[in-house]
Amino acid sequence: MKLTLLGTGCPSIDHKRCGSSNLVSSKQTKILVDCGSGVTQRLHQSGNSSAEIDALLLTHLHTDHVIDLYQLIISSWHSDRDSIWNIYGPKGTKKFIDKVFSAWREERELRINYEKRKSIKALKYKVYEFNKEGNIKINDIKIKYFEVDHKPVPFAYGFSFFNNKKKLTISGDTRPCESLMVNAQNADVLLHEVFIEYEMNKTSKLRTKKTLHNVKEYHTPSNLVGKVAKLSNCKKLVLTHFVPTRFNISKLKKTVRKDFGKDPVIGQDLLTIKI
Q1: Backbone phi and psi for residue 259, each to the nearest 5 degrees, phi listed first
Q2: 137 bridge partner residues
Q3: Would strands 237-243 and 265-266 be described as parallel, antiparallel, or unpaired?
Q4: What is the mean pLDDT, run by run of 10 residues, along the chain of 275 residues?
Q5: Which domain holds residue 154?
Q6: Closest Cα partner for 175 from 154, 194, 189?
Q7: Residue 122's domain is classified under what CATH number?
């Protein structure tokens, strides 16, 4: 099993860090987790194609995790995909995707009618909405999904992937919570978001102290992510979804190492980790 980081950024724009997205793959299977801004291009850069994706899993419906969904699907059609999309996500996913497709209906129908491609299966989708927790099997990869705490977002999820006796856990967006630490127990790799609080202390015209406080409150700050990893007993901690996207790498490693006991991997777009 391999993990490829396609987007390690956040809602702020950074050409080095695209929006949240990860590819989990094995010899038989390719699963995309989230589809933030730039994922389609990063997928291509990584040597993969949207035409090859077996399933799309969504952690939650924030824009920085789903904004490229339509582009992803349309690009798969232009890349000769000949199968429908299987999309898994929180409650409200089908309603959200139906609205996106409705917004682009006229343009899509024009292309279909004029371009005369032999198949439009790639433009169809089946949505499976999560319960509180549960299990999915996609070819040779087993997945457990579980709720995490990203309130006030009503439904947010993390995932554990199992293949060939290896375990990968992806936190999604969350503040430190018991559900994640329980489900990440003994993971070979824990991919976790991080809010670097000492880099986020500047206000601006629109960003107030209250804004900074509230954003921090529903993410995991850098002075706690090492504790989460330690309590999860994971073998390797990989950091992603950096808020902000530019920071002092040495200081972040030192902060996390204090509790985790070893250096985390500082994620970057297109980094691939064998599990």
Answers
A1: -100, -35
A2: 142
A3: parallel
A4: 97 94 97 97 96 98 97 96 98 98 96 93 97 96 98 97 98 98 98 93 79 91 98 98 95 97 98 98
A5: 2-274
A6: 194
A7: 3.60.15.10
Establish whether the linkage from the previous residue to 244 is cis, with ω within 30° of 0: yes
Q: Which residues contact 195 (CB under 8 A, 6 or more apart)?
A: 215, 216, 219, 220, 221, 222, 243
- Give the whole-angstrom CA distance, residue 268 versus residue 275: 17
Q: Which residue has 């250096």 as its token pair? A: 263
The C-alpha atoms of residue 60 and residue 170 are separated, in whole angstroms, by: 13
Structure token pair of residue 233: 């007993």
| Of residues 142, 181, 141, the one with CA closest to residue 158 | 181
> Within the chain, what is the greatest distance between any pair of CA atoms?
60
- CA–CA dist 156, 172 (Å, integer): 7
Please tell me the total count of domains within the chain: 1
